[in-house]
Specification:
Number of helices: 13
Number of strands: 7
Strand order of the largest sheet: 1-2-3-4-5-7-6
Distance between the termini: 24 Å
Structural class: alpha+beta
Strand content: 15-25%
Helix content: 40-55%
Length: 316
């Protein structure tokens, strides 16, 4: 899929929000002064808001922060995912941003077996003949002793069926990326974050009917394009599922930790874990749904439908 290099997505963001603001003001039969008064009444974030600012927002001259956009959307019972995912120009720009990263000077793939070949992604179901093999490869890469004790036979753990494993392949069966995540409830997650117990302990206390957190254990790609693709999969899952209130990461992977911090996601906790006579750092991150949507990088990744990333689709 080829794209020309577009302008910085901020211009598209301004266009999308200005259209949304004009639409909701018209639908609610509000003047610009009426909208200003309503926002001022609903939130202290808009105490200093004036009609001149609203006029400039509607004309796309400038735009409020995504945090304020998210707040305005919530006031009108909407959310940024719905607003931005429905705009074809914005989605196209987001797809382009990932696709173009392959040719970027900053994208230095050092893996000798991958030279930007065509790849595809697959959902590896627990019933898949290679589920145990690919899960072990994922866990081995992650290096997180909490994910699974070395003595535990993966195939014997019924609770592991709660995990979602996506793997990316090129050259037939060469693994070039993966992501591993599941849905849990917040109480179980915080117990997991504050202890050194393994993933089996977490999954054993999960009640799927009250799951409100999507927790990511591993996310990896051999290139920036595949890395972003893997992240877009679970972010899109979160965006589509209104029952998910939080996104969390629990990882020992320093590269993933660095990427999250570059995306300006604050770290929640660092937990040292002793493993094979070495101390390993377990990094925990947690964000509310609103915070995910108000993060430009995550918003851009979340609106990309999986089928637009590669010819083969993923069904989860």
């Amino acid at each position: 899929m080829g794209y020309k290099k577009y302008a910085y997505p901020k211009a598209v963001i301004m266009k999308v929000f200005s259209s949304f603001l004009r639409k909701i003001r018209t639908e609610h039969d509000l003047s610009q002064e009426g909208l200003r008064a309503l926002l001022n009444d609903k939130s202290h974030s808009f105490d200093s808001l004036d009609t001149i600012s609203i006029s400039r927002w509607e004309r796309g001259i400038n735009t409020p922060s995504l945090t304020k956009q998210a707040e305005i959307a919530e006031i009108f019972d909407d959310n940024l995912f719905n607003i931005y995912s429905s705009d074809t120009d914005f989605v196209e720009e987001c797809i382009h941003s990932i696709q173009f990263a392959v040719g970027d000077k900053n994208d230095k793939t050092t893996h000798p077996y991958y030279q930007d070949e065509q790849y595809h992604s697959e959902y590896i179901a627990p019933e898949h003949v290679n589920f145990e093999r690919y899960l072990k490869l994922c866990l081995r890469y992650e290096g997180n002793p909490r994910l699974l004790p070395t003595y535990q036979q993966i195939s014997s753990a019924e609770v592991l069926k709660q995990l979602t494993l996506i793997s990316a392949f090129c050259n037939e069966n060469q693994l070039v990326g993966h992501c591993l995540f599941c849905k849990v409830n917040s109480k179980a997650l915080f117990e997991f974050m504050n202890s050194t117990t393994g993933i089996l302990d977490l999954l054993n206390i999960v009640k799927q009917d009250s799951a409100n957190v999507l927790v990511v254990f591993s996310s990896f790609g051999v290139s920036a394009k595949i890395d972003n693709h893997m992240m877009s999969i679970y972010l899109n899952q979160l965006a589509l599922d209104d029952t998910i209130e939080y996104l969390s990461f629990s990882t020992c992977d320093s590269k993933l930790k660095q990427k999250l911090m570059q995306m300006k996601i604050p770290m929640f906790k660092v937990k040292p874990i002793e493993h094979q006579a070495k101390m390993i750092q377990n990094y925990s991150f947690i964000m509310s749904r609103s915070e995910v949507m108000a993060n430009r990088n995550m918003l851009m990744l979340s609106v990309i439908p999986t089928q637009y990333m590669q010819p083969k689709t993923i069904e989860i």
